[in-house]
Design a protein that fits this description.
This protein has 277 residues and is mainly alpha-helical. It has eleven helices and no strands.
Length: 277
């Protein structure tokens, strides 16, 4: 079940990124992020009686810290993407976001088979390859602009995934609830300080709300994946979300996969198979 939930979380995260990308073409980045996060919070409040869990001190502590880390990670990611190259920023962020909980999982004594460790390594490599993008002339050019921000973003997003897992199964989705409250507050304060809008353009409201629902669904599935198995496995499988984004772009927008991305998809499938062995 951990593998299933992790893969579903990746699919939902990738779909949320795809929809969010559409929304940011019509609305301000802060408006899309703040509104989608708030929409996800409302959805979680509605589903809370069905998902269960208990409000605990650990849920409050780790959820709040995780939410602050998540908000900071998202803001740094968007900033890195705005000043750097997506083909450089995205792989760095995605791999570090997965590496932080994986390292923490090993430190906590998670015992994986040799095949599973190999699968995790292959999956991390696949995330880099799937996330790579080329310039309009087909060439890939490495640039250090935005790399520092991408590294900081990846560490913070990895910390977010880690903190969500620390409250324990008894807390259920309460850490996620408190994390989202903290995230919404931080984003709203940042938007107010920078005098940025928090309400999206009228024509993009629906897709922003849908983005928020997908993102929250992904977060819930990730938490369920952690509770059902190892943190390291759940985090790595969830980090495969760029594959979902790329696949949707191929199906809906007709974008072609580069050779390196096709290799990444093949490696991702191999990595999942080894993790499941």
């Amino acid at each position: 079940m951990s593998i299933l939930f992790g893969l579903l979380a990746a699919a939902f995260y990738g779909a949320a990124d795809f929809c969010g990308g559409f929304a940011t073409k019509r609305s301000d980045m802060y408006a899309v992020t703040a509104t989608s996060q708030a929409a996800g919070l409302l959805l979680l409040l509605v589903l809370l009686p069905l998902l269960g869990g208990h409000f605990t001190q650990h849920a409050l502590l780790y959820g709040t810290i995780g939410g602050i880390c998540g908000a900071g990670g998202v803001l740094l990611l968007y900033h890195a993407l705005s000043i750097g190259k997506m083909g450089v920023v995205s792989p760095i962020t995605a791999v570090l976001a997965a590496a932080v909980p994986v390292i923490a999982g090993f430190a906590r004594g998670e015992r994986l088979s040799t095949w599973q460790i190999a699968g995790i390594a292959i999956a991390l490599v696949s995330v880099v390859l799937i996330s790579l993008s080329t310039e309009s002339d087909g060439q890939f050019e490495f640039s250090t602009v935005g790399v520092r921000e991408a590294i900081a973003s990846g560490v913070l997003l990895g910390a977010y995934l880690l903190f969500l897992s620390l409250a324990g199964r008894d807390a259920g989705v309460y850490p996620l609830l408190l994390a989202r409250v903290a995230s919404v507050v931080v984003l709203a304060l940042c938007a107010a300080a920078l005098r940025r809008p928090v309400v999206p353009a009228r024509g993009s409201v629906a897709i922003v709300l849908f983005t928020g629902a997908l993102d929250m669904g992904a977060n819930v599935l990730y938490v369920l994946a952690v509770y059902a198995g190892y943190l390291s496995i759940a985090a790595v499988l969830t980090s495969l979300y760029p594959g979902s984004t790329v696949l949707l772009a191929r199906i809906i927008l007709g974008e072609r996969l580069a050779v390196v991305q096709k290799i990444g998809v093949a490696l991702a499938l191999a990595g999942v198979a080894l993790i499941a062995s």
